[in-house]
Write a structure and sequence with these properties.
single chain, 4 domains, six-stranded mixed barrel, 23 helices, disordered C terminus, ABC3_permease_C
Amino acid sequence: MLSIAFSTLRRRRHALAGTFVALSLGVAMTAAMGLALAATLSPAHQPEPQRFADARAVILPERLPSVGPLRRPLEASRGLPPDVAARVRAAVPAVADRTFPAHVVGDGPSSVGHPWSVARFGGYRLTAGTAPRGSGEIVLAGGGARPGDRVRVVTATAERAYTVSGLTGPVGYEHAVFFADAEAARLSPRVDALAVTGSPDAARQAAGTSARVLTGDARHDADPDPDRERRALDDTGVLLGVAAGITGFVAVFVVASTFALAVAQRRRELALLRVIGATPRQVRRMLTAESLLLGVLASVTGCALAPLCARFLGRRLVDHRLAPSGFTVPLSAWPLAIAFLTGPAVALLGVVAASRRAGRVRPAEALRESSVESRVMTPVRWLLGAAALGSGLATMAATAIGDPASAANRKGYTPAVMLLITGAALLAPVLVPWLARLLTWPLSRSAGATGMLVRENALAAARRTASVAAPVLVTVGLAGSLLGTSYSVDATKAAEARQSVRSDFVVRPTAGDAVSDVVLERVRAVPGVDAVPSQRTALYAIGDGGRLRRYEAEIVRGSDLGRAARLDLRAGSIAGLGENALVVDEEWGRRPGDVVHFRLADGTRADARVAAVMKSGLDDGRAYLTSGSLTGGSLTGGYLAGGTSRVGRIDVIVRPGTDRAVVARDLRATTQGLGVEIVPARDAAGGADGTGRTGGTGRSSWLGILVTLGIALAYCGISIASTLAMAAADRSRDQAVLRLSGATPVQVVCAALGEAVLAVCVGVVPALGVSAVSLAGFWVALSRVTGATSLVVPWLPLAAAAAACALVALPATLVPTVSSLRSRPGAGAGLRG
C-alpha cells in the first residue's frame, strides 16, 4: 500500500494540489505564529535604558510593599525615603532626579520637569545657549523657542515666566523641561531616583533593602512608563495565542473538508481497488499513508515559508502598534518543530473520516456511487455535527445563566463560536439541497436553462458544494461572531458609561495623567459652572479567595461624589459622606459598614469604611474613595506628597439657565495652551472617536481581532481556490457534455460562475445563522449584567468577508472553465465523434 500511495501522489498531484496548498499554508501560519510567540518571551526584547543610559546604576523606591502576607508590584511612587537618599549620597557620588508636571504654555503636548543635573544621563546635549544658572531659567528639549525668549510654564500648582537659557536636541521617550537644581527641588521636594556615578556595589550596600538598585538593562525600569513595552509584549502574546488557536481550528476544518472532497472524487478508483481484492483496512491504510506523505511534504514546504511569514507578521504588528517598536521575530527551533509535526497530524485528522467511509463501501456499490452521490451524511457525521452544535449552544447557555459577566471576555466566548461553526459545517450537506432550492428559486422562474443547471449541479454534487461552502462559513461566521461581540462589548461599555454621566464637559490632559491646579482655578472662574476634580488611582486589597487584587478607583471629595456621576446604589447611602469613605461595586463582596484595608497606587497604607455598594457592570471592581482635598488630607497626603497635584480630570457641570455653547467657548479660551482639552462628557465616557471603543486597550483588542480574521480570510481564500481547482477535473467532463448538448461557451461559463456564487451563498447563509445565534446568546448574557446593553451587528465586515470569498471563487472558477473550453467537446467528455 505504501508503493501505491507514492504512485497515487505522483499521478494525482493536480487533484491533491489543493489539499497540499491548504496544508502547507496551515503549517506556515502555525510556525509563523509560534515564532512570533517565542519572540515575545525572548529576553532579547528587553528594552535598553533611556533616561539613565549613561548612569552606572539607578536607585528607585521599592515597588513591592505587602498587603497582609501578599506582595505585588505597584504602579506609582512616593519617592525615595529621605534617609535612604542621604545615606546613598554620602556613600557614593549620586545625582538626585525629580520628576514633576511642567508644561510650556502653548507648546503642544504636556511636558515633564527635571533638574538639569540629570539631563546628561538621558542623552540630552545642549545645541544652543547655556545651562540654567538661576531659578528663573530653563532649558527646553527640542525646538519652539530660542535662547533668551521668555515663556510661561505651568507646573503642578502655579504658573510662572521663565527665560530660556538653552536648547537640547529632542528625545523620543519624553518632552522635557529642565530647571536649575534648586528650582526643581522647590517645585518637587520629593527625590524620585538617584543616578549613581560611583560604585554600584557601594550604592547597593548603602541603600539596603529600602530601595532598588538597578544596573545594566534593568535601568529601563527608571524610564517613563517602563512597563509599557512589557505590557505590549504581553498583549502581543495573548493576541498571537488566540490567533494561533483560531488558525489551527481553521486549518483542521479546511483540510478535513478538502480531504473529504479528494476522497469523494476518487470513488471510482477506490471501487476498482475493492473489486480486485483490496480489503477495507488496506484502503484505509493507503489513504492514511498518502495523508502522512502529503503532510510531511506540506510541513517541509510550510516550515521553509515560515520565516518569511513570521518577519512579515512582525512588521505588521509593529506598524499597527500591536507590538512595541523594535519587535523582531528571530528563528527558533521549537516553534518550527511543533509546526512540522502539525502537518502530518492535521492531515491524519482530515483523512480519518473520509478513509473510514471509503473503506466501508462494498465493491458493487462503489461503482454505482461513483456516478451519483446517494448519501453525503454518515451516522458519525450526524453525531459529530449534532454534538458540536449542541455543545456550542450549551456553552452559550451556561455562560448566559451561570456567569454572564464572563461573556465580555472574548477569549472565553470564542470556543463556543467555534463549536457552532463546526456543527453548522458538519451538517452543511443536509442544508445544501434546501438552500440551493431557496437561493435559486428566482432563477427557476425564468425561461432559461442556466438557472436550472446551476441548481441541479449543486444538488447532484452536494459534497462538492459543501466543501466550497465550508471555508466561506468559517470566514463569514468568525467575522460576524468575533467582530459582533467585540463591537457589542465596546458599545455596551460606552452606553454604560454614558448612562452614569451627570456632567456636561470634561477637562482632561492631552498627555500624561495630571491637570495643574492653575487649570482647576481657571475652570472654577468660568461663570455658570461647577467644577468637580477627581483622580484615577489603583487600590490593592485582598479580594475573594484571599488573592491580592487590583481595583480601579477614583479619588473625589465627599461633597462632590454623585454630582458628576450617576451611581446605581444597591445598599447604603452617599449622603453626608466625610473623608476616607469607600463606595464599591458588588464585585468587592463588601457591605456598608465594612472596613477595608488596602494600599494606594504608591503603596500608602489606608483603611476606609464602606459607605455604599453600587451595582457591578462590565467594568467590575470599581470604587470611589473620598478625600477632603485632592492635594492633601490624612488619607491621600502620602500619595499626593511633594507638592504635586494629582487632579486627573475636571468634570464641569453647567448650572441651570447657563448657555452650554457659551460655557464651552469660555472653557476653551481660558485653558488654551495649558496642555488640556475640553470634551463633551458623554463623548469622554463613550469614546471620542465615535466607535464605542474606549481607549488603547479596546483598539488593540479590535485590531487583534482584525489580524486574526485577516489570517483566517487569507487561509480560507486559498482553500476556496484550491477546492475549486480540485473540482475542475470533474466539471470539465460535465461542461463538455453541455457543449455536445448544444450549450454555447457563454452559457457554460455562466453556469459555472453561477454555481460558484451559489456555493458561496450556501456558506454565507449558515454563517449568518451562526452569527445571529452567537450574538443573541451574547445579548442575553450582557442583559443579565447591565441595563445598557447595546448589540451591534457588523454588517459592513460581514458583507466585505462574503464579497472577498466571492471574488476569490469567481476567478478560481473562471480560469479552469475557460481553459477547458479550448479543447474539443468530445475529447473533454471522453467521447469520440
